[in-house]
Amino acid sequence: MSGARDEIEELIALMARLPGLGPRSARRAVLHLIRKRAGLMAPLAQMMAHVAETARECACCGNIAVGAICDICENPARATGEICVVEDVADLWAMERGGAFKGRYHVLGGTLSALDAVGPEELGIPKLIERVGAEGVREVILALNATVEGQTTAHYIAEALEGRDLRITSLAQGVPIGGELDYLDDGTIQAALRARRSF
Amino acid sequence: MSGARDEIEELIALMARLPGLGPRSARRAVLHLIRKRAGLMAPLAQMMAHVAETARECACCGNIAVGAICDICENPARATGEICVVEDVADLWAMERGGAFKGRYHVLGGTLSALDAVGPEELGIPKLIERVGAEGVREVILALNATVEGQTTAHYIAEALEGRDLRITSLAQGVPIGGELDYLDDGTIQAALRARRSF
């Protein structure tokens, strides 16, 4: 008799575990879903079940894949001899949206952290070093976040790759496109000034 | 080959249609789901499919139900001769969380709006009048939002029910529990003063 409420409450509790949704907004989302159950809820449930079943981690780079290997690792056109190292699949997606990078990726899945017991093994850094040899890589681009943890991890990887015949680069730091100096932090302005280019 | 990305993009597009999620937060939510696909994504998909299939509108009051009639309309203990009129199922849930009301509900599904062509028919007001007679209702509580639209609709319902042997009431307006006068709008303070009670 009270089954309907229980199931809806359970659905709300599950939705509330998504990042960006709290108990209140999850309730609002579920109500919206129930109102649009034919047009939105049913297709969403179906697509979610499908992705839950098929998606997995690429055995090579850590990207999300349907098979054992992701689209990018499978694509011979992406074997440019460049590997872009990112912290997260979200960062890989951001790079792909940019569309400027034509090589392959290596997703660390986090940053080095002594506190959380995340070492080089956990981040797949030995696997990266192995790939550098096996795939004839000429350049490793460290596209890690400009945070202390990201930069510590970048330094560790750069040291681990030292002595090999390859370029190690990182993303340029400076004023973002459309950025206004007045709203930028001092560190960014200093970095942009240090890396100034002739006009 | 690019099937994985297409399906994930489609899932993101569906998630972005939820209230409170935009394209960016939908992407973040989907990434989180893929990471927790066994523990969160699969059960969420299953529960969503289940609710999409079973949930419907209560034929009597407009609440969400599994059968033709909702739990509250089915429960003889809730036949107290009181009907609480709310705009939305979310408002019904809010009333139920309060736990103070023991009667039944009537969910309008909106407010009167000439612009959006929402008339009394669309809000089930004739159905409400019919219920008042059929269920021996002694009190109709107009728990509509304290907005212009909500109050216009409340006045319309009060007029439509005039001349019958029943009390028509509305929720009290005043200072919320824990509210600080300094942070309240002038209208609320005025309403609370007008409705002041002996201490």
UniProtKB/TrEMBL annotation, chains A, B:
<protein>
    <recommendedName>
        <fullName>Recombination protein RecR</fullName>
    </recommendedName>
</protein>
<feature type="domain" description="Toprim">
    <location>
        <begin position="81"/>
        <end position="176"/>
    </location>
</feature>
<keyword id="KW-0479">Metal-binding</keyword>
<keyword id="KW-0862">Zinc</keyword>
<dbReference type="Pfam" id="PF21176">
    <property type="entry name" value="RecR_HhH"/>
</dbReference>
<keyword id="KW-0863">Zinc-finger</keyword>
<dbReference type="InterPro" id="IPR023627">
    <property type="entry name" value="Rcmb_RecR"/>
</dbReference>
<keyword id="KW-0233">DNA recombination</keyword>
<dbReference type="Pfam" id="PF21175">
    <property type="entry name" value="RecR_C"/>
</dbReference>
<dbReference type="InterPro" id="IPR000093">
    <property type="entry name" value="DNA_Rcmb_RecR"/>
</dbReference>
<keyword id="KW-0227">DNA damage</keyword>
<feature type="zinc finger region" description="C4-type">
    <location>
        <begin position="58"/>
        <end position="73"/>
    </location>
</feature>
<dbReference type="Pfam" id="PF13662">
    <property type="entry name" value="Toprim_4"/>
</dbReference>
<keyword id="KW-0234">DNA repair</keyword>
<comment type="function">
    <text>May play a role in DNA repair. It seems to be involved in an RecBC-independent recombinational process of DNA repair. It may act with RecF and RecO.</text>
</comment>
<dbReference type="InterPro" id="IPR034137">
    <property type="entry name" value="TOPRIM_RecR"/>
</dbReference>
<dbReference type="InterPro" id="IPR006171">
    <property type="entry name" value="TOPRIM_dom"/>
</dbReference>
<comment type="similarity">
    <text>Belongs to the RecR family.</text>
</comment>
